[in-house]
Amino acid sequence: MSNSFNLNGDKKEGNNEKKEILEKIKLENILYKSNPKINNNNIYITDIIDEKNINFKKEIYSKNKELYKNPIKIKFLKDMIKDIYSFYYLDNTFLVFKSIYKILFLIYSNRNKSIVFYNLIDNIKINEIKKAHNYDITNFRHYLDKSNKRDLIISISGFDNNIKLWNINNLDCIYNYEHIYKYGQLFSACFLNYFNQIIILTSNSNFGNIESIKVFDFNGHKLKEIDDSNDNTFYIDIYYDNQLNKNFIITGNFGYIKSYDYIENKIYHKYNANDNRSHNSIIINNYEEIIKLIESSIDGTIRIWNFHSGNLINKIKIKNASFYDICLWNNEYLFVGCEDGTIKLIELKTEKLIKELKSHNRKVLTIKKIIHPLYQNCLLTQGIDRKIKLWIMD
Questions:
Q1: What mean pLDDT value characterizes the chain?
Q2: Is it the case that residue 51 has pLDDT exceeding 50?
Q3: Could you tell me if residue 209 is inside a domain?
Q4: Confidence bin at 355 (pLDDT 50/70/90)
Q5: Does residue 309 lie in a domain region?
């Protein structure tokens, strides 16, 4: 790769800039080494993502602000990916994030147990880690490690109870957490930043109905374990409360949602639905005075809870529906993935179903709102049909 940057200069203040440029070049070599089009033409990631060098065609995609506020005119554009591996459950079956070097990544797994890196800005697959796990990869999580200028992801294989921690800037596997649970399946994991210590939380569905949350540091040391009996846990996430200066663990189970106080190692609240059905997706909406927990149930119900009191604020029931992942849009709407392959758009204020999107032919597992440089606010969705679909504003 030819050097398109001027790295000369004796000023001290330029040292950090030179170091960052060198890191970018190193990253380009790693991620784009298998793409002859990019290598032959000496096109660099920094050129691709620099807003000055991209024609965003804003005159074509400039819309009325109200249109972006109200997603009623959203429409299917195209299938982005057609070979993604699809596990029957859900929880971040793919990732979308802007990296430390401003690359808009889409990361997913295929049936060959590989981790695939896709550049959404350039609309091209750029690399993959082949056979990243021995068994199928069920979900991912991302952490932006700004202090070390790197992007970290965890890939989860529920069938062998393994989690792998990766530095995607050099594609190195930092650590392999093997056989985390002796019994049951590993269903979900996430990152927690606690007093500058980045750790990994895991949850499982245990055949003995014992919920177990294990906490590991990046060297594989188990820091602690939080157990609660009579539960099967399918989802785990973290909510940090700025006012209380506390981390809360949130889990989705049969019949209810739970939150744990991370420091005190005890249950903070049980948000009890008494439906004996799995609760599959959870969002914390902290943009209002009352912190709200919004969750979906397989029985076709959306429940909105007061996070700190545990009281039920509202319940939205859609007949003949079975809900999985949910996505909050502009604090006023919910996109909900359903068993029948549809995506339902619900207006929270009126509690009404205002639109139904039909494209996936099987269960919709993951829905993510992203900001694309070309399409602005849009959706990516993934179903059991092994496709990731792109939806844009009409």
A1: 79
A2: no
A3: no
A4: very high
A5: no
Residue span of the structural domain in which 341 resides = 59-84+320-394
Q: Residue 3: how many CA atoms within 13 Å on its side-chain side?
A: 8
- Mean pLDDT across 298-321: 91
Q: Could you tell me the pLDDT band of residue 114, with boundaries at 50, 70 and 90? A: very high
| Residue at 218 is within a domain | no
Q: What is the C-alpha separation between 270 and 280, in angstroms, rounded? A: 15
Q: Chain centroid to CA 302: how far?
A: 20
CA–CA gap between residue 124 and residue 118 (Å, rounded): 6
Question: Is 307 a member of any domain?
Answer: no
Q: What is the pLDDT of residues 179-224, one digit of tens each?
A: 888 777 788 899 998 877 788 988 876 655 566 788 999 989 999 8
Structurally, the chain folds into a number of domains equal to 1
Read off the tokens for 38: 């990019």
Spell out the SS3 assignment of the chain. CCCCCCCCCCCHHHHHHHHHHHHHHHHHHHHCCCCHHHHHHCCCHHHHHCHHHCCCCHHHHCCCHHHHHCHHHEEEEEEEECCECCCCCCCCCCEEEECCCCCEEEEEEECCCCEEEEECCCCEEEEEECCCCCCCCCEEEEEEEHHHCEEEEEEEECCCCEEEEEECCCCEEEEEECCCCCCCEEEEEEEEEECCEEEEEEEEECCCCEEEEEEECCCCCEEEEEEEECCCEEEEEEEEECCCCEEEEEEEEECEEEEEECCCCEEEEEEECCCCCEEEEEEEECCCCCCEEEEEECCCEEEEEECCCCCEEEEEECCCCCEEEEEEECCCEEEEEECCCEEEEEECCCCEEEEEEECCCCCEEEEEEEEECCCEEEEEEEECCCCEEEEEEC
- What's the pTM value of the predicted model, to 2 decimals? 0.80
Nearest to 228 by CA among 194, 268, 179, 198: 268
pLDDT band at 23 (very low <50, low <70, confident <90, very high): low
